[in-house]
Amino acid sequence: MRTWIRHRAAILMIFLLTVLAVAGGVWRYGYGQALEQLARRGEADLALGADRLTAQLKRYQELAVLMAEHPTLLALSNNPAITTAQRGHALLLEAADKTAALDLIYARADGTILATAQETAPPPNALSETPYFRRALQGALGAHHEVDLRFDRRAFYYSVPSFSSDGTVSAVLTVVVDVEDVEGNWRGDGPTVFFIDDLDEVFISNRSELVFWKRSADGQSLIPPQGNAPTFRSYTRAGFEIWQLDWGPYIPARGLHIVQDLPVIDMVAEAIVDVSLARRIAGLQAGTIAAIFMIFGLILLQVLERRRVLTEANAELENRVTLRTQALSATNEALRREITEREEAEAALKKAQADLVQAGKLSALGQMSAGISHELNQPLMAIQTFAENGTRFLERDNSGKAGENLTRISQMATRMARIIKNLRAFARNENEPTGRIDLAAVITQAVELTEPRLLQDDITLNWSPDALKTPVYVRGGEVRLGQVFVNLITNAADAMANRPTRQIDITIQSAPRLCVLIRDTGPGIDAPDKIFDPFYTTKEVGSSEGMGLGLSISYGLVQSFGGNIRGSNHPEGGALFTVELERWPQESAA
Predict the structure, then answer these.
(1) Domains plus CATH for the chain?
(2) Which of 28, 33, 119, 474 shows the smallest number of beta carbons within 10 Å?
(3) What is the predicted pLDDT for the residue at 240?
């Protein structure tokens, strides 16, 4: 009996050791695979952050190159009079305001400052001692970074020479870039990223607590400028460098260290990617394998304990298999029913959304029906009058006058056909996918549809499609996009009821992103963050002008085109709606 117990104990010990060994191997393999995927994603994120930083700095470098040869600055270099200096200051200040540059400095080759964007100018002859200024004096682009003592802020400097007629450097334009403004676009976003300069100091980072940390003596860790060095340990796992550290609540305690050289800005980009998810995945895989092995071990133990009653055990095992199969079959059937129900619910949701969009269009048509009827009645009455006049002229053998009346009848019929065409296009249920749409044509159709309402309420609408030099093509649906602009125009008209000045301005802005600006002279928006919520409206309860779904429908339609819509209050009064759209690919490339 004791021998049998020792034999069972030895088998159990070997089995447990085997389970631990297999689970450990699975954990190491799964952890390595997860680290490999995490490294690829981290390298992509680091490359994206580095490209974003270099692109933003490139913009200021191009600003310096373009502004260096500005006629106003060249005139200032040749004639530093007070009026010329004032024009130079105004030019540099305007450029700094538009580009968010910290400062722009225009100085002679000897370092004498001629004009600056900021009132606080550097000390006399201070520029001539800087490396970027000396580099520009050699006829090349000067670049440098350091803490600007005037503003106590981290800054990048780009200096570009301005040449005189004899080919020598007569002046230098320096653009001072605010690093904190550059960081503001991606601070706290993605993994921890920091950029170390040639002084082994963190100069830029999306985690502000790491700024000015320096590389430690061992060349691996970072230490703060003040205080003791925090906990740090570096080791290699599956060929990847892992850092274990305690640098702050927003920095992972254990992360994958990734490095990328950036010779363009003379820095090294590094990232710390949190590996907790990879460890959890590896632990889940190892736990699953261990659980499976333990299940098999328990089954084996059960078989060993009941080997003397093998027949009964086989019968019980078959019964368990049957019950498990039934349970799995029932579970599969339930899953299939759930999938079917979700597909039906999704189809019902899409149909409800389409019906809601169509109801919004029909509601808009109902509100515009009186004005449209008037627009159609006028040409009909005119056609009747011109027809009667033409008959009388034919009776008098005056074919010239009769022809003029027939021409006017044709013009009126063309006008009615255009109105009916716009109504049919607006009312139809568009099922076609998004495609290439002429933006100006869609806006013009929306203006024509709402024109009776605007004339009725004595509203001035400023829209000049002829001002566009070339057609603007966007991605979208013609009918759905037209509904968006009809909703915005009618909402603007509703908002301006009982206002002394009623005016709507529609413009197309091409840069930095293609968007349509619709401004009215109404009372403005009380809650800009709620106007796109369904059923939110500022109109009285029971009003026939809508239930607060127009802007919500418009928001969904613009989102389906890959664009965005937002509302705000214009500084000069009234509401301003901005509809951002994606250019058609060929248009964007052009």
Answers:
(1) 69-182 (3.30.450.20), 330-429 (no CATH), 434-589 (3.30.565.10)
(2) 119
(3) 85
